[in-house]
């Protein structure tokens, strides 16, 4: 079960990823975590990434794909994995497809969490106000202005990835504004449906 989760910050991807991990026993892969682990382990691709980061540069798509390629070879990812926060661009999505094809693998489903962004901002503003009212400092992630900046970046860069997967028949839209348990049911239903398609299509 190889899955990508798409959706803006605050859409509930992290919460649902934990439940998918519990249900399918596959790891949730964050590119940031993988990057740090590869650098710490001193792998060839990790050393490349370290050199780029130390020079103040942005790690290239090629390096990120290389790190994902190494990570999914590890035993815990043999049954599948969840990619959260990657790919962020169509170029990354295309590179990911090529890398998986070289390994004889393919994605099972891409889940896009659809949310009302104005309501998300409202939630964050309410949480920040409540935190301030308690006399506590507002976490950076809960700062409404920081959150709006992250939403804008998502809309500008990552929102274009969903149509790429829609064209390939992999995208399933999930209503992220429903209750958490209802969202989980929709997610698991979508994943079961993708497995049925695979079996009927004889692709496994």
How much helix, percentage-wise, in residues?
Answer: 55-70%
Largest sheet: 5 strands, parallel
Supply the CATH architecture of the domain at 2-26 and 79-116 and 161-201. Answer: 3-Layer(aba) Sandwich
- Helix/strand-derived category reads alpha/beta
Q: Mean of the pLDDT scores?
A: 89
Shape: globular
Unreliable parts: none
Strand order of the largest sheet: 2-3-1-4-5
CATH class of the domain at 2-26 and 79-116 and 161-201: Alpha Beta
SS strand fraction: 5-15%
The CATH homologous superfamily name of the domain at 2-26 and 79-116 and 161-201 equals: P-loop containing nucleotide triphosphate hydrolases
Please give the count of helices. Answer: 9
How would you explain this protein's 3D organization?
It is a single chain. This protein is of the alpha/beta class and 204 residues long. It has a domain at 2-26 and 79-116 and 161-201: P-loop containing nucleotide triphosphate hydrolases (Rossmann fold), CATH 3.40.50. The protein is 58% helix and 11% strand. It contains nine helices and five strands, in the order βαβαααβαβαααβα. The chain has helices at 13-24, 31-41, 44-54, 61-71, 90-102, 117-133, 144-158, 161-167, 180-201; strands at 2-6, 28-30, 81-84, 109-114, 171-175. Strands 2-3-1-4-5 form a five-stranded parallel sheet, sandwiched between helices. The chain is globular and about 50 Å long. The protein starts with a strand and ends with a helix. The mean pLDDT is 89.
